[in-house]
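pasting for the record
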Amino acid sequence: MATEEGAETTSPLDDVMADIRRELVRRVAADDRDSNRDVYDALEDE
């Protein structure tokens, strides 16, 4: 929801959902790195 000044206001629920999204992205990225460790290691060696 935008205010007259154009700034968005966020509810506590929006803040919690943003935190959850960030944590999910962090976990998926970490799992991807772990699952593909050999690929990442090979890229570092190039």
